[in-house]
Design brief:
The longest helix is centred in the middle third of the chain and has 17 residues, at 137-153. By secondary structure, this protein is of the alpha/beta class. Helix 7 (178-191) crosses helix 8 (213-221). It has a single domain, classed as TIM Barrel, CATH 3.20.20. The protein contains nine helices and eleven strands. Residues 7, 11, 13, 38, 233 line the site of one zinc ion.
């Protein structure tokens, strides 16, 4: 079992410490555990948006986070998972230089790239659902996948997280999204970037894995490697619904997943 996307209370909207998460991972027999805390947001966004302080760890704690996870990773206590030091970076347009600076400040094993903001609106924040009334669904989906393709092409991330996040609260495009899926699959294949299969969607109103089966199949046709994450925001969510992720991958034609160690993709059998 692998879980390449877990959070701790350091991001201000999750529960549990690194040790709490690790204890559950040990108990469940995980082979790889990737901490992917939300990378600090840029000062400009924090100044503009009073809610943003609860979206990510503050920059003043980044070094502590690196030290804490690195200590656990080097500890190598048996039996236990291989612990990897990662971050989940917000890769909306204009944020690349900020992310590059922080990502180069520590020896991360992997960087997940995410799009959570559209023109400054955190569309996955359950407190900001009124934003969906201001966006045409087709325009939202098109713009999201454009930004996601740009995130992949930036070369900053090793894998793109929860690739069809706009469905979280039930927003779906009026027109067939398969064209968007194909364009995105082509962009990530060209960029040589992996994509995350996330079981977090199963815990949300959409009640579906990210990505949808058609998108996962499009990724498989282009040979895009996939990793698996729970996006756990509480210790008990570590490894959440792993069998469902494996089933989705198998249905899409995958025989292996990948983990990312020292910024290198490494295949692991399902
Ligand atoms: Zn989060
Ligand atoms: Zn995310």
């Amino acid at each position: 079992m692998i879980d390449m996307h877990v959070h701790t209370r350091r991001c201000r909207h999750a529960r549990g410490s690194v040790q709490d998460v690790l204890a559950v991972a040990r108990q469940r027999g995980l082979r790889y555990l990737g901490f992917a805390e939300h990378l600090p947001l840029p000062a400009l966004l924090l100044d503009q948006d009073p809610r943003a302080a609860s979206y990510a760890m503050p920059e003043s704690e980044l070094a502590d986070y690196v030290a804490e996870v690195s200590a656990v990773a080097e500890d190598g206590q048996e039996p236990g998972p291989r612990v990897l030091l990662g971050v989940e970076a917000d890769l909306h347009p204009g944020n690349e230089a900020h992310v590059r600076r922080l990502v180069s400040s520590a020896p991360f094993d992997f960087v997940l790239g995410s799009v959570h903001f559209l023109d400054g609106w955190a569309f996955d924040d359950p407190e900001l659902l009124d934003g969906y009334d201001r966006w045409d669904a087709d325009r939202l989906w098109t713009r999201y996948f454009e930004d996601l393709a740009a995130a992949a092409a930036s070369g900053i991330a090793d894998a793109i997280a929860h690739p069809d996040l706009p469905k979280k609260f039930g927003c779906s495009p009026r027109t067939d999204p398969r064209e968007l899926y194909e364009a995105f699959a082509e962009a990530v294949a060209d960029a040589g970037v992996a994509v995350e299969v996330s079981t977090a969607g199963l815990r949300k109103p959409c009640a579906e894995i990210y990505p949808a089966p058609d998108l996962l199949a499009a990724l498989n046709r282009r040979g895009v490697p996939v990793t698996i994450g729970s996006d756990a925001h509480a210790p008990e969510e570590v490894g959440y619904a792993y069998e469902a992720a494996v089933a989705a991958l198998t249905d899409a034609g995958y025989r292996e997943a990948v983990v990312i160690v020292g910024r290198e993709i490494k295949e692991v059998p399902l």
